[in-house]
Amino acid sequence: MKAYFFLCASLVAFFVTAQQLPTDYLTADFHKGRRDAFRAEMPANSVAVLFSNPVRNRANDVDYIYHQDPDFHYLTGYNEPHAVLLIFSSPQTTPDGNTYKELIFVQERNARAEQWNGKRLGVEGTIASLGFESAYNGSEFAALDINFKSFDKVLFYNFNNDYRDTRDGADLFDLVKSFKNKIGFPANYNASLQQVYTLIQSTTEKDTQKVVSQLKRYMSRDASLAEDPVVKDFLNATMQPKDQKIMDRAKTAVNLAINQYNFDLQGLGQIMSGLRETKLPEEMALLRKAIEISAVGQLEVMKAMHPGMSETEVQGVHEYVYKKYGAEYEGYPSIVGGGNNGCILHYIENNKPELGAELVLMDLGAEYHGYTADVTRTIPANGVFSPEQKAIYDIVYNAQEAGIAASVVGAPFSAPGAAASKVVADGLISLGLIKEASEARKYFPHGTSHYLGLDVHDKGTYGPFKANTVITVEPGIYIPEGSDCDPKWWGIAVRIEDDILISDQGPVLLSYMAPRSVEAIEAAMKLPSPLDAFSLPSLE
Ligand code: GLY
Ligand code: MN
Ligand code: MN
Q1: DSSP letter string over 313-378?
Q2: Which of 66, 125, 387, 417 is deepest in the core (most CB within 10 A)?
């Protein structure tokens, strides 16, 4: 007992002394404000239920580094696993007359577990530092007495059923199991069928054909939908548009099938997309920092690069710069592809031992306090672009300039892509690599833009651009070995990717610290690097 007391006392001392943390995290007020903003978008008489991300096992008793689900982080700031958040559209009253509008269940404090795997906030820490009026241990969730049937809508994401049941009686597996019991979630619930029913339910006579096309798209992804009698009846009815009785009967069948449940598996994503698309100033401070760190990483690599470097070492230099600035993670696995490897869009092996005179495509992003950058530079490992490399690079550069110029408030989401694609197609035609614009996708097979924020491919509505949105503009040209063109182009892969703030004053280049034009890159590669003097003993 004495020994146990001593151990507890030393753990307390350990945690008290381990409190020196960065001071620029999002604040409790930010997260609380986001929950209020979320609530304002909720349908009447609804509850939203969100779960933390699962822990993933790497091997034996080693797990992958834990990363919180970005929605959960955005709404709570709680970054531990095994937690569940409930947000109510309007205040709820307990039997003894107290009101509440949100509930959070978190990992229970446990000195022994914390000694091995790190500090837990626990109920008290969650209340003290995350702005919740009350919080509960996960083990109390099973006993939570809420009649979910009393809500018009229960919003949640479909379950991936990909988490383990550990010895802990309140792990994510148990929380989800309790929740499924509480809402009466059927074991055979077919989310895509319910989505199709919802779509049919919202059909008016004049948009029937649009809905039918959408339905056929869903059916091409999930053939079982075509076997459903209710869907079959509806499709049959749409083929006899003059017969209102058949259509009414089909819609009644849909209503009957869907009304058994008050689940809403789409609404949560729609609200979160609306909220996360535009960034608040607190978020912009972190996102700008992640982007500037990543841009400095690109510059430092340009200075340090030489033909004897390996892809792995290049990756290491970028990631060292990230850590030096205090960025916790990479926002996605780092991509460093020399020569033909650059043609693999998400190449992450990064194991070529020597880059020689090839182009090196480097697509990396630091994650700083949850926000991730996404910056790509393509540079010649020997410091000088060959005429062919330069010809391709300049087309991509001009395409990116056009894409950035099109990134303005009110423009459709597709505007940067349309502008960049035209420049790429014209450029490839002028070099004789293609004959007509429709062939350009052969060498430019991906989109030009995505939202950026807590996720590298962040959430958003894909509507016209709004101020305070951050997107990437990232055209590329990839000519794999063996392509149907003059072999002098083979193995050239160029992507230039920058992070752009869409603002009322026009597009703002956030990744400006990374040299971008041929001239600026060649000049940067002539600069001395602190790594020139860094050598390690040979291990041969
Ligand atoms: N780094 C992944 C992307 O550019 O979308
Ligand atoms: Mn990107
Ligand atoms: Mn990228």
Answers
A1: HHHHHHHHHHHHTT--EESS--EEEEGGGGGSTT------S--TT-EEEEEE-EEETTEE--EEEE
A2: 417
